[in-house]
Amino acid sequence: MTIQDMKWPVEYIKSLVLMLCAFCLSALIGVPLLAMIVTAVFAYLMVFSDIDRSWIPVSVVLLLMVQNLIIGFFGHMSGQFDQLTLLTQIPFVYLFLLFCLFLVIGEIRFSIVTFMVLLLVICILMSSLRGSTLSEMIYQTRNMITAYLAFEVGRTCLKERSQLITFAKNMVAMGLIMFVSGITFLIGKFPLYKVFGIENVYFAKGTLNEGVYELPPRFTTEVFNIPITRMGSLYYEPVTVSYFFAACILCAVFVKWTNSRILRASVTIILVIGLLLSGGKGGMLTLGIMIVAFILCLILNFLPGINFKLGFWISVAAMMAGVTLFSEFYSINYAGPAKAHFDTIRETTETIALNPMGYGLGVGGFNGGNSHTYTESGGESALMAVGYQIGVQGVISFALVFITMSMKLLSRSLLVGKRYVMMSCFIPVAILGVSIFQLNTLTPQGCVPLFLLATALYGKDLGENDEK
Fold first, then answer.
1. What is the rounded CA–CA span in Å between residue 170 and residue 63?
2. What's the pTM?
């Protein structure tokens, strides 16, 4: 089977065209309510119409991929700015509505992961009593629960081997589109991004005055003191697009989506180049942790007395220790633009120690609302921002959500015993580990493709014809 073999259901195409047209029109005329209403209709159609469930996660990733392109291009055409902010939340709203619909019809069951999420929600509600503005609290809550929503929606929709193949093929295809688009934008540079509304996108995201006269600072970075111009592609964001490429690479490598080894290898090389051109250390670190830990786990299995479960936890601990030591070395010798991340970890830890219960939901970092500086309040670290806002108890419950997700995936991999299922176990803990170094790891564009992939690999009826 190849990418060309994909069959697109007619009902899915009709619903998707309706959704995208409403999205484009909303950005063009500045009426976000229209897109919100059609998003609700789209979610309902996807859940209750006779469409194979595998297309639901595909549609989630597709919306994440094109949201900034639609907001930027159509917003730029009509000169819209203020009315675009709500449109940046369309993919999350769609994911949230899918979760709610599946919950109402009884397809999402209570589990140990659900229990940990409830503990996290309690911590969030407690910290909201001394929180920032309502919009900031909603935004921060979104980042804390997005991974769980993707986990449950993915588990509900991707249960069979055929659904895994459909999802993987589409992920690979979208990865190639992202690569070609990224190369085009790299060649066209700022003038091309200007035409496609990069100023409008960053205004909608709340970072004013970026993308007006030149590319935002995040489009340049240093890796081992080597300056590079980064590829943002359709995300308009080099950091988060690296996570997208990481998910696509895992699909290309660990899922047998085609019988052609040459095609599989060629696509993998292209996607790796895309990841490198993004310069996104978060995506590189996530992919590196998963692959090295996975290989280490397989090696440990050859030792007497060590099974896959024990090898998994040893590998995770070893990789986290290795990443910590490497980060310390990198911060001392090569930090460059990454210095703010390491300063944030150190300074925010000291700040949290002064008030372990947290400073309130939605405060700190870019949001202000307190007497601490940007790097003292989790400004460049998603995990430290969680600790600053909802306290030590919140960080513990948050970490337990990711750990129990890995445990759920691990229990499945022990039953199936296949390489691609085993790889899924490492995704939640890898994302958790990387979130301490990166601010955007927990955003929908950052973590959703990876968590949907993890649950696709988890599927309950994977068949026996796949490679061991």
1. 13
2. 0.91
